[in-house]
Write a structure and sequence with these properties.
With 312 residues, the protein is α+β, with helices and mostly antiparallel strands. It has a single domain, classed as (Glycosyl)asparaginase (Glutamine Phosphoribosylpyrophosphate, subunit 1, domain 1, 4-Layer Sandwich), CATH 3.60.20.30. The strands form 2 sheets. Strands 1, 2, 3, 4, 5, 6, 7, 12 and 13 form a 9-stranded mixed beta sheet that branches. The longest helix is centred in the first third of the chain and has 23 residues. The chain is globular and about 50 Å long.
Amino acid sequence: MPFSIAIHGGAGTILREQMTPELQHAIEADLEKSVRCGFEILRSGGLAIDAVTAAVKVLEDSPHFNAGRGSVLTNQEMVEMDASIMDGRGKKAGAVAGVRHIRHPIELAKAVMQDSEHVFLIGEGAESFAFERDFPYTEQDYFYTDRRYEQLLSMKEKGLFALSESSYPDDKKYGTVGAVALDNNGNLASATSTGGITNKKYGRVGDSAVIGAGTWAENGVVAVSTTGMGEHFLQENVAADVAARVRYLQETIECAAEHIVQGELKARGGEGGLIAMDKCGNAHFAMNSSGMYRAMINTQGECKIKIYADQD
């Protein structure tokens, strides 16, 4: 049976003219480390659900992406993280939102799926569940980066919660991370993790934690992980809609993904994209933005890493 994996580190406005060679190299190195980490699990006969978890954990550990250690800050200068995961076998799923002291939110989402009767836990309750299962308590200091603090101060001065100016090449990028995979038993899986949006208030939660909007996996159909302005992806239920088009209309993942990303989503002003993988291990990256951090290792074992939308 074929197996493959694809990952993303967020989509949006990513500007070549502000990307230094050093930063690009560092980002590409993290993307390669992530996709190879997941692929090694698949190559050794492991499950897709474990591969996507491992790949996302690598991205959560990197300060270059808005998830885990690189998460943006809320209006209260805190990190609040969301994540979700779905196993194509029986469509089991787990999700968490608003967690502040968990180094790898994707691991907690997986624990919710595997070790509880629930699908979605939030805030203090999600963390209580984690600590009962011996997840280590991680201080907020671990997640702080100078870059995210500068972003927050700039946006507070302007009274914004979305970036209007850039001092980094990807300041206008919606920094979700995610992975989709097919294992050699034909199982599909998807995982998504994010720090949300800078200067968010009121316990805001986007699509990354919501099964059907940000994450979907269904054996024999498709695995999807999205990235973009979460409100639009929630309103269009993007991940599940891709799956529905594949399931009911027998569309290819490319046709289904492009129809939504370039159609309904773009029409309502939703910038971003998604990664999808079909039952044969074919991956597709769809975006209506200038870039998406992305990588894949296909069924032939070829590794491809890209940043900009105009890269073949």
